[in-house]
Amino acid sequence: MLDNREDIQAIHEVFSALSHAWQQGNGKAYSEIFTPDADYVTFFGQHLKGRSEIDHAHQALWNGPLRGSRLIADSNDMRLRFITPELAIAHATGAVMMRWQKKAPASRDSINTNVLVKQNGEWKIAAFHNCRIKKFNWLTRRLFKVE
Predict the structure, then answer these.
(1) Per-residue pLDDT, 1
(2) Which of 81, 90, 122, 140 is a Cys-bridge partner for 136, taking CB atoms 3.0 to 4.6 Å apart?
(3) What is the mean pLDDT of each run of 10 residues along the chain (147 residues)?
(4) How far apart, in whole angstroms, are the C-alpha atoms of residue 1 and residue 92?
(5) Which pTM was predicted?
(6) Spatial separation of the C-alpha atoms in residues 104 and 95, rounded to whole Å
(7) pLDDT value at position 3?
(8) CB neighbours (10 Å) of residue 123?
(9) CA separation for the pair 139, 134 (Å, rounded)
(10) Residue 135: exposure state from Cβ atoms within 10 A (0-12, 13-18, ≥19)
């Protein structure tokens, strides 16, 4: 059996660095967590390609509507699966808490899928896709027969 405790810890550190860069409002530091050619899909479907677009899009948010916001994530909730020793998929949940809020509202809860690659001994996010977690309304529950 493969002992990948160091890689698991390193991937958790990737997400800690992501949260730290968000809290700092630092687009450059945030983008450096990704591979140079990373694909980043926001919760509303915007596709950012590469570090420069990730940096600029996030810096504009932190300079404007998301100024002072915090990224709230539960690293214990992350589901991690290694495809190969150098390739992993992580599903994580989190929310953005605005600077005036004491708690992130449930309406901001999101789930994201991350493809991580280990390059030169360092884990980076190669692809990220974020999606808002929504409760089914009455029509959706009926259509999908969900209670």
Answers:
(1) 47
(2) 140
(3) 83 95 97 98 93 97 95 86 96 92 87 96 97 83 76
(4) 25
(5) 0.89
(6) 6
(7) 73
(8) 20
(9) 13
(10) exposed
Q: Give the separation between CA 104 and CA 97, rounded to whole angstroms.
A: 4
Altogether, the residues listed in the chain come to a count of: 147
Note the pLDDT of residue 74: 75
Q: Using CA atoms, how far apart are residues 136 and 132, in angstroms rounded to an integer?
A: 12
Instruction: Please give the structure tokens belonging to residue 82.
Output: 């290694």
Q: Report the amino acid identity of residue 71.
A: L
pLDDT at 75: 72
pLDDT of residue 82: 97
Listed residue (25, 24, 34) closest to 54, CA to CA: 34
